[in-house]
Amino acid sequence: TGYYDEARQVALSSRASHQFAPLLAEWINGGGMVPAHAAAAAAEECEKMFRMGDRVGRASYDKKKLLLYAIISGSRRQIDRLLRDIPSLFSTIEDFLWFILSAVQDFPGGTSSNEGLVPYSLDDLQAYLNKFEPSYYTKNGKDPLVYPYILLLSIQLLPAISYLSKEAGEEEYHIDAAHIAIVLADNGVLSEVSGAGQKLGVMDAYAEASSIIRQYGSMYLRLGNLQMALEYYAQAAAAVGGGHVSWTGRGSVDQQRQMNLMLKQLLTEILFRDGGVYLLLGSRGAGEEGELRRFLTDHKARQQFLLEAARQCLDSGLYDKSIEIQKRIGAFSMALDTINKCLSEAICALSRGRLDGESQTAGLIHSGNEILETFKYYPEVSFQEREHVSEQQTILRQLETILSIHKLTRLGQYLDALREVAKIPFLPFDPRAPDTSADVFQNLSPHVQACLPDLLKVAITCLDNVSDTDGSLRAMRSKIATFLASNMRQNWPRDLYE
After folding, report:
1. CA 354, 358, 361, 363 torsion-angle sign
2. Mean pLDDT, range 294-306, rounded to an integer
3. pLDDT-derived band of residue 431, with 50, 70 and 90 as boundaries?
4. Three-class SS of residue 75?
5. Which of 8, 125, 303, 382 is the most buried (most CB within 10 A)?
6. What backbone torsions phi and psi does residue 124 show, to the nearest 5 degrees?
C-alpha cells in the first residue's frame, strides 16, 4: 500500500526476514521491479515453498512469506498459482487488490527484462476484474462506491468516472465524477489508459471526460449561475484540448483546434443566456472588461467570435441579443439591419391586428435612434461602414413613414393617411407628380418590400372612405393600380387586385 519505509524497517528488525530484506530494498528502489537475478531468486524461493507445502504450525508464516516472494518475483505463474492454491489468503477484495497492484509490472513492448519470467501486467488485472459485473462489487447497489474504487485502483480511469457520473445510485456522485475528470484531464493521464476492452483513442478519451465536465457545468447554466457554468465549461474545453497543456499552447495542433471549437461553442451558449453579454463583455465594450478576455486574448479573435455569435443569434431568432452584440463590436449597420428586419415584421404583424405590435415598434425605433446617436461619436469608422449605416438609416425612416400611415388609418384619419401616402418619396403615388416608368419596387429594401402589400391595402381602404372633390384621389387610385399591374409577379394577396 505504499508504506515502503515501514516495510523496510520491519524487514530489517526481524531475524526471520533478514534474507528477504535485500530483495525488498531492490524492489522498492526499482519502483516495483528487480533485476533478473533477484526476480529469478524470488521465483525459485516460491517454487521451494510450493514444493514443501504447509508445515504444521507454520502455515500462516509460509503463506505470507510466499506472498512476499511472489510480489518480488513479479511472475504471473507464481501469482496465479498462489491465488489458485490458497484462495482464502485474502479476507477482503481490498487486500487482494493491493496485492495484485503491487505485483503488476508493465514493461516496454509487454515483455519482461527477467528472462524466462512472464510478468503480471495491468491488462491481466483489468481483464480479471472485468469478468465480474458491477453488481458483484457493489452488492447489488448497497455499496455503490466499491466498483468505481476498484476501477480507479486498476487504472481504468474513464470507466470509473463514467460510472460515477451515470450509474452510481441516486447519490450525487456526478459531482465527484466531474472533478475527478478535471484532475485526470488536466494532468494528461487520460491518454495513457482507459480500461481493458475499452481502448479509446487519445481524443476520444479526452472527449469523454470533457462531456462529463460539460454536463456538470450545464447544471449551473440551467440554474442561472453563469459564472460557475463558465468555469466548468472552460475546464471542459481544456479537457478536450489535452488538459493543462491546452492553456500553454503545448498541445497538438488537433487538440488545440478541438479546444478552440468547443470553447467558442460553450462561450456562445453562455452569451445567449440572460446576463451572458454582461458576464462575457462587461458593462461596455467588446469584451475588454468582461470574462471573454480571459479566453480570447486577441482583439481580432474576440471580434470574429462575437460576429459569429451575433449571426447565430439571428438564426435562432434572438434579435435583441444580436443587436446588443453588434452594437458592442461597432457593427452598427448590421445592428440597424437587424432592427429594420424586426421593425418590418412588427409592422406587418400590427397591420394584421397583433395587439403588442405598437409597443414593439416603438421600442425598435428607439433602439435604432440610439444606435444612430452612438454611431456619431464612435471612433475609427470606415467609409464603407458609414455608407452602410446611411443606407440602413434611410430604410428605418421609410419604415417609420409606413408605420405612421397605419396609425393614422387605425385612428380613422383617412385623409391625413392619404396625404402621407402621397408624400412617400420612394413610391410613385403622388397624384400631382408625373408618371414614372422606373421599377421602383426593385430599388427598395426587402424589409420595406415586405410591408408594401399591407400598405397598399391601407391606401385603398382610405381611398374608399374619402370623397374625391378634385380628382386627385382618382389619380392616386390609378397610380396604385398601375403599380400593382407592374408587380403582378410578386405573388401578393389576390384581394389587392380585386
Report:
1. negative
2. 86
3. confident
4. strand
5. 125
6. -60, -45
Cell numbers for 461, please give them. 381602404
SS3 487: coil
Q: Assess contact for 204 and 239: CB atoms under 8 A.
A: no
**Would the pLDDT of 108 be above 50?**
no
Q: Which residue type sits at 490?
A: Q
User: 3-class SS at 199?
Assistant: coil
- Residue-wise pLDDT for 203-216, tens only, equals 578 888 888 999 99
Burial class (CB in 10 A: 0-12, 13-18, 19+), 433: exposed
Are 318 and 272 a contacting pair, CB within 8 Å? Answer: yes
pTM of the prediction?
0.71
CA-nearest of 141, 132, 269, 286 to 214 is 269
CA 124-127-133 angle, 5° bins: 150
Q: In the structure grid, which three cell numbers stand for residue 262, read together?
A: 468547443
Distance (Å, whole) CA 206 – CA 258 = 10
Domain holding 57, by residue range, is 1-106+116-120
Q: Is residue 94 in some structural domain?
A: yes
How far is it, in rounded angstroms, from Cα 388 to Cα 63?
A: 88
Buried b (16+ CB within 10 A) or exposed e, 34-52: beeebbbbbbebbbebeee
Residue 233 placed within a domain:
no
- The Cα-based distances of 251 to 255, 259, 417 in angstroms read 6, 10, 67
> Residue 36, SS3?
helix
C-alpha cell at 75: 511472475
Q: Is 282 exposed, middle or buried (0-12, 13-18, 19+ CB in 10 A)?
A: middle
Cβ proximity of 98 and 67 under 8 Å: no
Q: Rounded to whole angstroms, how far apart are CA atoms 272 and 265?
A: 11
User: Which residues have CB under 8 Å from 473's CB, separation 6+?
Assistant: 418, 431, 463, 466
Residue 450: inside a domain: no
Q: Above 90 in pLDDT, residue 399?
A: yes
Find the mean pLDDT for residues 167-195.
75
CA distance 400 to 405: 9
Q: Which three cell numbers stand for residue 335?
A: 445592428
| CA–CA dist 355, 274 (Å, integer) | 25
The count of structural domains within the chain is 1
Q: Which residue type, as a one-letter code, is found at position 265?
A: Q
3-state secondary structure of 133: coil
> What is the Cα–Cα distance from 184 to 375, expressed in whole angstroms?
49
N-terminal to C-terminal alpha carbon distance within the chain: 93
Q: Is residue 97 part of a domain?
A: yes
Q: What is the pLDDT of residue 228?
A: 92
Contact 82, 66 (CB under 8 A): yes
